Amino acid sequence: MPPKRLTRKQREQRQDARRSGIKELTRSRPRIKPTNPSSSSSSSTTQYTPDQLLDQAQNAFETMAYDLCLKFCERVLENEPGHEGAMELVALVHLQREEVDEARRIFEVCIEQNPDSGASKYMYLGQMSFGEDAAQYLGKGIELLASELEEFAQHETEEENIIEAQESIASAFCSLAEVYLTDLCEVEDAQETCLVLMQKALEYDPNNVQALQTLASIHISMSEVDKARDYLYRSLELWWPSNNSSSNKMNDAQDGDGMALVTQEKEKGGADDNGDDDDEEDEDNVEEGVPFAPPYEARINVVKLLIELEDFDRALTVLDMLIAEDDTITQVWYLQGWTLYLKGDMASAHDSLQRAHGLYLENNVERAEMLQHIEELMKDLVQ
């Protein structure tokens, strides 16, 4: 049987995920390294170095104090016009404010100034672009990341930096594969290209959750359900902590133990309902060697894959976790209602779909296709 291409709806969903992932990308980015580390040391004068100002700008960005971040960046650029680290931070502020055109212009200026070093500007532009442009930016970013990794290895860099570089390359391969799954899906051998890219990602980072999920999605589109299930469950085991053995992790969801994962879902550095810092509590709840859960949007994609594989119980467990983390997301309630409908729990399905419908109208969501499906399901349930 020849491989099936992604449907138009699937491609649009993936493109939406890429667009919504841009702001998530800026939040999870690594800190920009100072150009001269020694200049970041304390000074007896009130004259701050550009690197000290850049560090203050990054702190402001991470606390979402964007106006303050821009002021620090302006001071850096007054002292060092064209300072790439400062320019990138300014572009990221524009991205957070959804001023995409201005962010793109700044990244493009960074490339003109310094085309052969600094992978991050290429990676951001790759996420912001489509089609061949996206593929070219991401390809160049991967090339520069690989060069950085080689340089780290030659200079006996700390293992932590090497691991971080390997993870960055693996994630970059995943981003490039997404382009071939969406914009370039009609290109000859697009699916085969994706498979090659994902294998390269796993060579750099064998436990890359995104790569394993992407492989699961590709094999679903190729009607290779068993392979898809294997890759998806491998990815889940990496962030689904359990006191039981690895082979029993997935079964815990069926028994209801999966709800213990809710405490794991808070992002590092987050706050609890009372506004208290919960870093220490999170660390106590994390098993040794188990990373924090993937971003919210990535876990929504996990649910979609589980639904496609008709693994409704696990899909509902992940949805419960997502709702416990944020109960204002229309799509999550819609997916819960759809999953319950497919499972045959019509009363619960109606409740979830009704909540999704209310949130859709309340939040002015612009996804007509989702609204239409919600209303069709609700109409069917009352007949």
Give an overview of the whole structure.
The protein is an all-alpha fold. Helix 8 runs parallel beside helix 10. The two termini are about 40 Å apart. Residues about 1-5, about 35-45 and about 245-290 have low confidence and may be disordered. The chain has 18 helices and no strands.
Characteristics:
383 residues; mainly alpha; 68% helix; globular; disordered N terminus
Please summarize what this structure is:
The chain is an all-alpha fold and 383 residues long. It is built from 18 helices and no strands.
Task: Annotate the secondary structure layout.
Layout: H1 8-27, H2 50-62, H3 66-79, H4 84-96, H5 100-113, H6 120-128, H7 131-154, H8 159-181, H9 190-204, H10 209-221, H11 225-239, H12 249-254, H13 279-285, H14 296-308, H15 312-325, H16 330-343, H17 346-362, H18 368-382
The total count of strands amounts to: 0
Mean pLDDT: 81
Separate helix tally: 18
The biggest beta sheet reads:
none
Secondary structure class reads: mainly alpha
Taking all Cα atoms into account, the compactness measure Rg is 22 Å
Proportion in β-strands: under 5%
> What is the global morphology?
globular
N-C termini distance: 39 Å
**Helical proportion, percent range:** 55-70%
Low-confidence region ranges: 1-6, 35-45, 243-290
Which sequence of SSEs, written as H and E, runs from N to C?
HHHHHHHHHHHHHHHHHH
